Amino acid sequence: MNKRKNIALDVINVSKSFGSTTILKSISFEAVRGETVVLLGKSGTGKSVILQCIVGLLTPDSGDIFILGQNIPQLDYDALQEIRKKIGFLFQSGALYDSMSVRDNLEFPLRRHEILTEKEIEDRVKQCLDDVGLLSSIDKMPSELSGGMRKRVGLARTIILKPEVILYDEPTTGLDPATSREISRLIIKMQEKLKVSSLIVTHDMECVKMTANKVLVLKDGTICASGAYAEISESQDEFVKSFFE
Ligand SMILES: Nc1ncnc2c1ncn2[C@@H]1O[C@H](COP(=O)(O)OP(=O)(O)OP(=O)(O)O)[C@@H](O)[C@H]1O
Ligand SMILES: [Mg+2]
């Protein structure tokens, strides 16, 4: 019981197929509160599918996914909306609304999910933008921002509802090394400041090294290796080694 209490994300025997193609074969892993877990895997192996199952955008064929004690695949619509407020999701694409200013993009989830005064909304938006170093861009449109800045705004929007779990889908993909490092540092900052538990899907090995408390390797629908960065990076398994070359 005590051990469970300390687990923010508990994925148990999750399987998922599309038609006759099996993507996930009874996957299990957990993230302890405050821990950052990184998921590695080749393109098209089901990493985004795992994240989508965790937020309830996809339903697994079998298995349980407990977040903060609630079993996601079994929740009804209202309960799912409620728990989603506690889960931040930084999408692979960044997913800002291009027709809205940065400020409006950040206000959107707040107005939808929380009852706050105008002053509280303004303060929260400014605080989150300040956290990602973009306060001066508050009245810009997404089209006026660089790729790295858009990711940072995406991150600010991800943290605006003060999530307890954050899922990152390839947060540094498409960014130059210096900007990628900046995003990785922000991920660490969020973890330290908000004490969140994070699951990061990435191909960026510097990001893995900087952020991971635990690394999982996905292969053929199963987790073929898991452990601390130091342990996984020293693995003699050819498949695991291929990520570090
Ligand atoms: N909604 C869906 N319907 C049918 N097939 C899907 C669906 N979502 C994903 N798939 C399939 O599941 C497999 C895994 O997709 P997924 O997006 O999880 O890969 P990934 O590991 O995230 O790859 P990448 O690193 O390129 O982002 C792919 O073959 C994909 O075509
Ligand atoms: Mg993906």
Quick recap of the structure?
Helix content is 38%, strand content 26%.
How many strands, what sense, and barrel or not for the largest sheet? 6 strands, mixed
As an assembly, this protein is single chain
Mean pLDDT: 92
Rg over C-alpha atoms, rounded to the nearest angstrom: 18 Å
The CATH architecture of the largest domain comes to: 3-Layer(aba) Sandwich
Total of helices:
10
Terminus-to-terminus distance: 41 Å
Low-confidence stretches: none
Shape verdict: globular
* Domain module tally: 2
| Bound compounds | adenosine-5'-triphosphate, magnesium ion
Strand arrangement within the widest β-sheet reads 6-7-8-3-9-10
CATH level-1 class of the largest domain: Alpha Beta
* Helix content class: 25-40%
Sketch the topology as an H/E string, one letter per element.
Answer: HEEEHEEHEHHHEHEHEEHH
Proportion of residues in β-strands: 25-35%
The total strand number stands at 10
At the third CATH level, what is the topology name of the largest domain?
Answer: Rossmann fold
The CATH superfamily of the largest domain is identified as P-loop containing nucleotide triphosphate hydrolases
